[in-house]
Design a protein that fits this description.
348 residues, ornithine cyclodeaminase, domain 1, Rossmann fold, binds nicotinamide-adenine-dinucleotide, ODC_Mu_crystall, Ornithine cyclodeaminase, NAD(P)-bd_dom_sf
Length: 348
């Protein structure tokens, strides 16, 4: 068998290598650095091709493709969301993605993105909170203590400067797991028996639960003035976390309105309800938080540019941290037109 040519090879970051990369850089630093890449890309929002993600729904969950391009690079992520998976021993969310050159269409990176999605979601949440959370917010309630939970807590510690996280999950084992994992971070961790208890004294409330139905993780009476809500888990048609009355009292900030109106908390509102696009806040066109009493809500669903930014970040690390293998992924015949001949010669 002949060896693949250089053009055939695409760097592949496996789960194992992603873990090596995260541990070499340090999870908190990596989240903060991904947040910088995400912010850079939000600030050049108009350069990107944007489309709501392509979703295939079933009774059990959803499989989605998330493409975007800045004209130089093209990226996409494959991701699923299956709330019943955990009980069956599977992850709720798994993902992988590709970054490619636009000029010749050749992929330049193939990467696992289950871990990278948790990092980029946390990075996005914390980045957005930098613009929207009340000044000197020190305590975050974290409702839903599953796979994303510790990444979120770490991101808010590193980027926003919180010192305390108040954990709650309907499954106490999940809370115990998160508390254990967060022990070494220096965060003060308080475990709470109810969502009501968790939000007490918190300036930031993160909801990060998984349920394939309209859920009410927060009711109106639980949300006082001046808080920032980081709503992660409502990210599909029919899958929300907040009571509608909270939305009506909040200033709502979103990634890409055409996608969020389908998938986010605002699917509960009129299609023309006023929302603010985050890229406008980050470019200084409109204010973020404008008063101490205001309730700000990041109606997060996860947008393709954030994955693009995360893939860009990983690609940029590979020279310094060569945690990848080369995959023989692209057929590269000596004569570009002789694809058949290449196959036939391989038989001899
Ligand atoms: N917005 C984004 O960019 C983005 C990115 C990734 C994941 N998500 C979403 O975030 C959510 C969490 O993802 P995950 O990977 O951590 O899922 P997970 O299944 O690992 O964890 C979810 C946790 O929520 C808990 N939970 C369910 N109902 C609850 C309730 N009523 N009160 C308190 N806790 C409750 C479950 O016990 C579980 O521990 C999912 O809905 C996922 O689709 C959003």
């Amino acid at each position: 068998m002949s060896k693949p040519s250089k053009l055939a090879l695409v760097p592949f970051v496996s789960v194992d290598n992603m873990m090596n990369l995260v541990n070499a850089i340090g999870p908190a630093r990596m989240i903060a650095e991904i947040a910088e890449y995400i912010e850079q890309d939000f600030k050049r929002w108009e350069q990107f091709d944007k489309t709501p993600r392509v979703a295939a729904h079933s009774d059990e969950g959803v499989i989605e493709l998330m493409p975007t391009s800045d004209g130089e690079s093209y990226g996409f992520k494959y991701v699923n969301g299956h709330p019943a998976n955990m009980a069956r021993g599977f992850q709720t969310v798994t993902a992988f993605g590709v970054l490619a050159r636009v000029d010749n269409g050749y992929p330049v990176l193939l990467s696992e993105m289950t871990i990278l999605t948790a990092l980029r979601t946390a990075a996005t949440s914390a980045l957005v909170a930098k613009y929207l959370a009340p000044e000197s917010a020190g305590t975050m309630a974290m409702i839903g203590n599953g796979a994303q939970c510790e990444f979120q807590a770490l991101a808010f510690q590193q980027v926003v400067g919180i010192h305390t996280v108040r954990l709650h999950d309907i499954d106490t084992e999940a809370t115990e797991k998160a508390a254990r994992n967060l022990q070494a971070t220096g965060l003060k961790v308080v475990t709470c028996a109810s969502a009501q208890e968790a939000v007490t004294g918190a300036q930031i409330i993160t909801t990060c639960t998984a349920d394939k139905q309209y859920a009410t993780i927060l009711t109106d009476n639980m949300v006082g003035s001046g808080v920032h809500i980081n709503a992660i888990g409502g990210d599909c048609p029919g899958k929300t976390e907040l009571h509608r009355d909270i939305l009506l009292r909040s200033d709502i900030f979103v990634e890409y309105p055409p996608q969020t109106r389908i998938e986010g908390e605002i699917q509960q509102l009129d299609p023309d309800h006023q929302v603010t696009e985050l890229w406008r806040v980050m470019t200084g066109q409109v204010p973020g938080r404008s008063s101490p009493e205001q309730i700000t809500l990041f109606d997060s669903v996860g947008f393709a540019t954030e994955d693009f930014s995360a893939l860009r970040y990983v690609r940029d690390q590979l020279e310094r941290y060569p945690h990848f293998v080369d995959l023989d992924m692209l057929a590269d015949p000596d004569d570009p037109r002789d694809l058949f001949g290449m196959v036939a010669r391989a038989a001899t």
